[in-house]
## 1
Amino acid sequence: MSDSYDLWIRNGTVIPMTRNGDWLTGDVLVRDGRIATITRGSATGVRAREVLEADGNLVLPGLIQCHVHVVQSLLRHHADNLELLDWLRTRTWPYEAALAGDDVEAAAQLGFAELLAGGTTTVLDFGTTHDHDRVFAAAEAMGIRCLSGKTHMDAGDGVPQGLLEDTDRSLADAEELGRKWHGAAGGRLGYAVAPRFALSCSRELMEGCAELARRHGWLLQSHASENRTEVAEVDRRMGMGNIQYLHSVGLTGPDVILAHGVHLDGADRRLLAATGTGICHCPGANLKLASGVADVPAMLRSGITVGLGADGPPCNNRLSIFHEMALAGTLHNLRHGPKAMDPWKVLAMATRDAARLLHLETITGTLQPGLAADMVVVDATAWPLLPEADPAVRIVYGASAGHVLHTVVEGRILVRDARLTVADSAEIVRRIGEAGEAVRRRMKELIP
Ligand code: GUN
Ligand code: FE
């Protein structure tokens, strides 16, 4: 090979995730933002503009989270020890109502910085009702692959005036955002319509969201069956189960990703599987909000595609895909015994399966020539990754976000040697300190 490349990742333990159980020792060569070649053994006669010496470290597809709320970042560590509906009404909604445009951007920068430093290269993100341009602007500047949407809320108990929307205006705002941002940054950004959940949207708004998304070919995301009180309340108000209700308003299908699914029965799982609806499992948030344990092995047996997500920083309190993988890999042993989850399946839920959920499987989620060069290099010499063993076992049971050395999106090194290259970290820290304090002060006046 005498070709020249933009990036050369040398001598890694490469885990392509095209097939569970496969890995090789070799190099990844990148040109024009895409993977050009993966070599078994070291490439020779190669010239590259940039070289990352992997030195036996683990080279993975960029990790994917199918449910986060970066806009909630400034509320982290200020909304603890509450169940979902109290957490929403007394913390998260007052906080979101108190956010100004600059705060939205600062919160998004904190969220994206943490995600990238922790090896997450793609997210499906949930906004608040307003100023959602600022989330996309931060994602554009910081280089992450991001599908996102403003949330929709036109009904419900305990919603602050500042978040309660007019139904038509809410839909028109989303359409304007989607027209502007879907496909922006060379296709790295996308729009995903985000009705909050059954309890904060009228039926008309839910149906409008489904119609809007399908008219444009945008994905849909929402929350479903996270908490027992929420499920009982949906049942009482709608006269049917939550999943049945979502189905009746058009919020099921292969273009829909529902976060949680903690309280599902067999009929719910059959409906989700039959419609191709995806679930994002958020074990960290489910534990923190005392919501319960989603029965992921049962979902997988039913044929539902499952991804992973950290959910919001105030209900987790970290945005680490490694934390979610470790939980997903162990939590289900309680119900199903020690073989409940194969670590390769867990790693697939953070890569290949997640890409399929987000309709990005021809772009990211595996390492293959022609796909975008979205990659993570994890330190194989970190103490909890030793001694050498099956890489999925090491990653799922041993690795943490702090073990990520390099994060690459479309061939661009966004994190090098665990340092963000795309933004001034000290400036982000300063901004979130100021913005966070002011928002939380204003938020106090809005707590019912
Ligand atoms: N359900 C409706 N909104 C939210 C939210 O912001 N976070 C979580 N975890 N669940 C929700
Ligand atoms: Fe959420």
## 2
Amino acid sequence: MKKLSVIVPCYNEAEVLPAFYDEITKVLDSLYGYSVELLFVNDGSRDETQNIIESFATRDERVKYISFSRNFGKEAAMLAGLENCTGDYAGFIDADLQHSPDLIPEMLKAVDEDGYDIAACRRVDREGEAKLKSFLSDGFYKIVNSITDTHIDDGAQDYRIMNRNVIDSILSIKENVRFTKGIFSWVGFNTKWFPHHNRERAAGETKWSLVKLLKYAIDGIIGYTSTPLRFPLYTGILSLIAGFVYTVVLIITAIVSGGSLALGVAAVIDAVVIVGGLILLSIGIAGEYLSRIYTEVKGRPKYLVAKTNCKK
Ligand code: UDP
Ligand code: MG
């Protein structure tokens, strides 16, 4: 019998977990011919999340859990799930019921019977999402896609099911600062897309603050492309050309006006501020990459497990 592992990253989801468990087990119970593993990854929650998961585990042997020593982020939680799952197929689903579990049977059929490697959901609307978040996220994908070769689908969600080959491919990527959406698109494979209407969060609130999202976006861009590193090169060339033209203009003006050059102090200050800004920005970009190299070289574990019932 083939096995499906459903990986659920959870961070302070105590309010919604009981409803989630009811809904997902209804769907999982209806899957005939498959064995199932429901793998909760508790990403350092400070509420009752861990106790609730353990209470599921005592009455349902399909329930497995990995509990982190602190909050390592959703990316680390998804990685831990993939590293510890035992299924022939593995899927991610959010704990907040924004991803409707009803789609699982269809997605499973796509990878098991229809020959796809991945069945993934694509958001068709942004209902239940803050306007500012939609706006910023649109901008982010536009930037990423205009400076990288691989296309990251704007609406692509983490809600997906993949086969063993894809799981192992993702696990073969060892980098520390992980941007899963980029990794999904980088590994490729034959993907069937399912249109998916975002539901409202069933309970609790989003774990993504604007600052967290901004950090995520920077991680995404830096981790995914080295194009920004060329920024100093391009602006340097432009600045040199501009400087050269300006010199010629100055010389001509000097000749025409008979040698007396009235240089506006304001113009000088302006130039200093602009060039200073460009230099700082360039150093900043290089610094971002340097810090990523530093993190990778240290080679720290991507997460630490405090408690688990996974045997692997
Ligand atoms: N999550 C996590 N670690 C974090 C933040 C979020 O494991 O540091 C989980 C969270 O419990 C949920 C999923 O990731 O199951 C999506 O988070 P959320 O619903 O807060 O994000 P949104 O849907 O608002 O993008
Ligand atoms: Mg959510």
